[in-house]
Amino acid sequence: METGVELIEFLRPTENVKNLYVTRIPELYTEEELYEKLYKVFSKYGLLYEIQLIEAKVSNRNKIVHTSSNRSAALLTNSTDESTPSSFYAFVKYFSARAAARAKYDLTGKLVLKGQIPRIQFAKRKKTTEDASQCLRLQHCQELANYYLGFNGWSSTVISIKPYDDESIGVTENKACFVCIVRLDIVNQGLTSEGMGVWTEAYHDPVSKLEAACKSKKFAQKRAMEDAFSRIILIVLENGKVSAEVNTTAVTPWQADIGFDVDKLLKVNDVDEPPAADSDDYDVDIPETTAELDRYE
Fold first, then answer.
1. Buried b or exposed e, range 209-241, using 16+ CB within 10 angstroms
2. What is the 3-state secondary structure (H, E, C) of 220-265?
3. Which of 4, 74, 234, 284 is most buried by its number of CB atoms within 10 A?
4. With contact defined as beta carbons under 8 Å apart, do 286 and 145 qualify?
C-alpha cells in the first residue's frame, strides 16, 4: 500500500503504477454494461483518467476508450454490435498511484463479475519517448482541480488575448493568430500560475476570417489554460489533505518547439482543425483470444 505524500501533476498519467490491467472478465457483458460496472467499482478509490476496454477476438478485435470526461465509447477499429456480449479485458487508469494501489489491494480476489473473479494486476506497458511529459487536456485539468481542490478552490483570469503577427514563425496572410495569457489562482493558498498559448487558423475569404479569428482566440485560451495547469503540482497526504506548489521552471512539450523563441512560451499550431479528442494509445501487444490473456506480462 502507498503511504506518505503523493505528488500529482497535471500531465497525462503514463506510469504503470497508475494503470490496472483487468482480465478473466466473463463473456456476459456488453461493452456499455461492462464500462458502467467497472466505473462504479473502481471510481470509489479515486479519480479515473480513463477506462479502456479491448475486445479479445481474432475475427473482430476492437479497442474502446472511455475517458472520465466522456462516457460515450470511442470505437477505434472495427465496429461491433454493442448489444451482443463479448469477451473484454480492460485497462483502468487513475491519476493517483495511491488510488490504483488501494483499488488493487481491496478488489483482488474480492471483485465478482457475474459469478467470476477477474484478475487485477498493474499494467506493464512498453515505454515510449512520447510518454515522458504530455500536457493534460483542459477538461481533464478542470476535473483534476475540482476533485482535489474543490469547485471553489481555484479560479482563472484572462490577462491578455490579442493578435500575433510574425512571419518568422509562419504567421502570414490569410491566417488568424492570437496569443493568450491566463492566470490561475489557487484559492486560500496564495498561489498563482500563469500560462501562455498561441493558435493560428487559416481562412480563405473574408467570410471565414471572422470564424477563424474566433476559433484562434478559443484555442489560444485553451492552450494557455493547459499551460498554466501544467505548472501546478498537487501534494496529497495520506489523510486526504491537499496543498499545491507551482513549478516555475516547468516547460511544457509544445513550448519546446524551436519554431521561434522559446522564451516567449509560445507555439503556433498551423492546422485547420481543432485538437483531436483526448485519447491514449497503449503500446501493448493485444492478445487475440481469451486464452492468451493470462500470458500477458
1. eeebbebbbbbbbbbbbbbbbbbbbbebeeeee
2. HHHHHHHHHHHCEEEEECCCCCEEEEECCCCCCHHHHCCCCCHHHC
3. 234
4. no
* pLDDT higher than threshold 90 for residue 142: yes
Confidence at residue 249, expressed as pLDDT on a 0 to 100 scale: 77
Largest CA-CA distance found in the chain, in angstroms, rounded: 65
User: Of residues 282 and 289, which shows the higher confidence score?
Assistant: 289
Do 183 and 159 contact (CB within 8 A), yes or no? Answer: yes
Is 31 strand, coil or helix? helix
Task: Name residue 135's beta-bridge partners.
Answer: 11
pLDDT digits (tens, 9 = 90+) for 5-42: 999 999 999 999 999 999 999 888 889 999 999 999 99
pLDDT at 293: 45
User: What φ, ψ does residue 231 adopt, rounded to 5°?
Assistant: -90, -10
Relative to beta strand 154-163, strand 119-122 is unpaired
Q: Collapsing DSSP states into helix, strand and coil, what is residue 209? A: helix
Q: Could you tell me where the beta strands, DSSP code E, fall in 11-87?
A: 19-23, 48-55, 63-67, 70-75
pLDDT digits (tens, 9 = 90+) for 197-210: 999 999 888 888 99
